[in-house]
Amino acid sequence: MAELSRRTFLGAAGAAGAATVLGAQFASAAAQVCTAGATVYVGSYTTGADGHGLDVTSRSGAALTQVRTVPGISDTSWFGRSADGKTLYVTNEGDPNGFVSALNITDVTNPKLLNKVSTKGSAPTHLSVHSSGKYVLAANYGTGSVVVLPILTGGKLGAATDLAQHQGSDRAPNAHQVVNDPSGRWVLSVDLGADSVYVYSLDVATGKLSQHQQLKLPTGAGPRHLAFDPTGKFAYIVQELRPEITVASWDAAAGTLKALSVVPAVPAGSTGDLYPGEIVVSRDGKFVHATVRGPNTLATFAVSGGGATLKLVSTVSSGGNWPRHVSLDPAEAWFYVANQRSGTVTWLPRDPATGLPGAVAGSLAVGSVNSTYFV
């Protein structure tokens, strides 16, 4: 089975494309609901790249301004926060040896490294703090596994208590995400190489995972990330190797996913490189948003049928090259897109009534950027 390289398998990016662009008529109104002085962390690649690792930025209106680079934090590609809010956890996406770092953020503007521990695999691309507050879970993309790391007193991490190894059939496994379900009872991991979503239970006393279900998607789908709707009854699985989103029902009592439908993430007739990246769901559950690399767009989907149905309603330019990640600010008035290959974080206003983005309103230069995180 051929292994998919984490950063290079996708090939060259296509030229930036744009479909429906609304303009910035509501940008000024959206700026008024931003919290001035908010802190935003920005992750970027450092190995063989021009990123800083972990940057602290401040936000005034919608604009981000760099404050400082946290020293000694390499290849930061995902963020999580402890239940008490005092500790930040970040993936250090090393290959062949990956780590997760724990940082004290009592002062959110000046994170201090506590320790870092091995993920027992390569290229950890995603993490989450388990709902019990006792563990950090991380997905090793390079080796296709999920690791359980105990949270110690004071927020430091201990050595792994378990490692769940995925198995691919047509390709090597590439675990891309690991999250709790909304009920807190189950752990789900999305694996791009295995074309699967795994469902686990976690024994909180021992830190051991037990596989409960493996939802197999069509060969070559390349599922990357999933996001739940606010009811907890549906999960939207963005696929990287096909520009699509799979809508699945979620039964929290049984701990089972069921694929229902597949929705294109690009307009009909789109050609060239088409690689979706991140997916987010609005708090009200009315809209889903996803980045698509290649055409370099931010797609918006309208949700209907109580969460069971998605419809692509808009695609706009991300304002940069290779939009890897998108996040919404706490007020959901702005999108922040990490454009990896152009080395820019762009921000676009969001109409809360329609869910639609307007034109890019500004940008911050960050080399090899991959993600943003609001604190």
In short:
By secondary structure, this protein is an all-beta fold. It has one helix spanning 27-31; strands spanning 38-44, 54-60, 63-69, 76-81, 87-92, 99-104, 112-118, 124-129, 135-140, 145-150, 162-165, 175-180, 187-191, 196-203, 208-216, 223-228, 234-239, 244-251, 256-264, 275-281, 287-293, 297-304, 309-317, 323-328, 334-339, 344-349, 362-365, 369-374.
Description:
With 375 residues, the protein is an all-beta fold. The protein has a domain at 39-274 and 365-374: YVTN repeat-like/Quinoprotein amine dehydrogenase (Methylamine Dehydrogenase, Chain H). The protein is 1% helix and 49% strand. The chain contains one helix and 28 strands. It has one helix at residues 27-31, and strands at residues 38-44, 54-60, 63-69, 76-81, 87-92, 99-104, 112-118, 124-129, 135-140, 145-150, 162-165, 175-180, 187-191, 196-203, 208-216, 223-228, 234-239, 244-251, 256-264, 275-281, 287-293, 297-304, 309-317, 323-328, 334-339, 344-349, 362-365, 369-374. Strands 3-2-1-28 form a four-stranded antiparallel sheet, with no helix packed on it. A four-stranded antiparallel sheet has the order 4-5-6-7, with no helix packed on it. It is globular. The N and C termini lie far apart (40 Å).
